[in-house]
Write a structure and sequence with these properties.
By secondary structure, the chain is of the alpha+beta class. It has helices spanning 9-25, 80-89, 93-107, 112-124, 129-141, 154-164, 174-189, and strands at residues 49-52, 62-65, 75-78, 147-148, 152-153, 192-197, 204-211, 214-220, 228-229, 238-249, 257-269, 276-284, 286-293. Helix 3 packs across helix 5 and helix 5 (129-141) packs antiparallel against helix 6 (154-164). The protein is globular, with a radius of gyration of 20 Å.
């Protein structure tokens, strides 16, 4: 999920080739042929270590670790077994996930949507990039309704990739075109949640928003956060929860300082008329949450 650093083109190619040997060493059935692509990481991320370890990724495709004492420049772990399976179904798609992990490190965030957009933007101008992005869209649409609060649905991810990667509309699957239209209509009718912080040392927060017991998604104070579309709100009080809250202090040009993580708070939201659900967070040993409709 989080990662920092980008290898140069030659080193990136070496990493991908090494995945083949790693897959064989782990006894993964069948060859894993990494996709060709011209993308290479930015120079400032050239010190990031890339390792292959399915146990570390919990058998997901990849995970990124922000800089710490063990990995001063950050690290990326990849699972060759999972990459091979993705490639078998949608050739070239696994390349997107490597760039996605670099996105976490480049942006210093665990925002999965931001990492998706960063990866698509990086790939769109490279040789073979459109093939990778189209393959990623096809991969997500294989299980379109799959949902995780940190990522949104796979339809959300496919839409991010297609839009941020500037894929021509003529190349979009019909289901994705229909979904974008549904999102546009919903945005005009449903309230949007936004989060703000009380003035003080804490100047960045990330959270999962839960409304009336249902996880809505990921919300952050970090630009370019555009808010989170909420479900329709009926009359009467609503239970609002902020869970898995991470709070930071950021200084320009300095490494982010994580102040606390895995926090939670809740409150009541009165009423149902309004286009914005404004969430106000404050932290002084305990997390305080307030919500209002505007």
């Amino acid at each position: 999920m989080l990662c920092s650093g980008v290898l140069r083109a030659a080193l990136t190619a070496w990493v991908l080739k090494s995945l083949v040997a790693c897959a064989a060493a782990q006894g993964v059935a069948g060859p894993f042929h990494p996709p060709e692509a011209a993308w290479s990481p930015p120079p400032e991320l050239s010190g990031v270590r890339v390792r292959w370890d399915c146990a570390h990724t919990r058998h997901g495709i990849g995970v990124a670790i922000q800089p710490n004492f063990v990995y001063p420049r950050g690290a990326i772990f990849l699972c060759p077994e999972r990459a091979r399976a993705i490639e078998a179904a949608n050739p070239s798609a696994s390349r997107f996930f490597l760039v996605h992990e670099y996105g976490h490190l480049a942006l210093c965030t665990r925002d999965e949507g931001a990492a998706d957009r960063w990866a698509a933007t990086q790939l769109k101008g490279t040789r073979g990039g459109r093939q990778v992005l189209s393959a990623a869209v096809a991969h997500f649409l294989r299980r379109p309704e799959m949902f995780d609060p940190l990522y949104g649905s796979n339809l959300d991810r496919a839409l991010r990739v297609a839009e941020s990667g500037d894929l021509p509309l003529r190349d979009w699957p019909a289901r994705l075109i229909l979904y974008r239209r549904r999102c546009e209509l919903a945005a005009a009718e449903r309230p949007v949640a936004r989060v703000q912080l009380a003035p003080g040392y804490i100047n960045r927060a990330e959270m999962i928003l839960v409304v009336d017991g249902h996880a809505v998604g990921y919300l952050s104070t970090q630009p370019p956060s555009t808010g989170l579309l909420c479900p329709p709100l009926s009359a009467g009080p609503h239970e609002i929860k902020a869970v898995d809250v991470w709070i930071y202090h950021d200084e320009p040009g300095e490494r982010s300082v994580m102040v606390a993580r895995s926090l939670a708070a809740d409150c009541k939201l009165e009423g149902h008329a309004g286009k914005t659900v404004l969430l106000s967070l404050a932290y002084d040993e305990d997390l305080d949450l307030r919500a209002e409709l505007r």
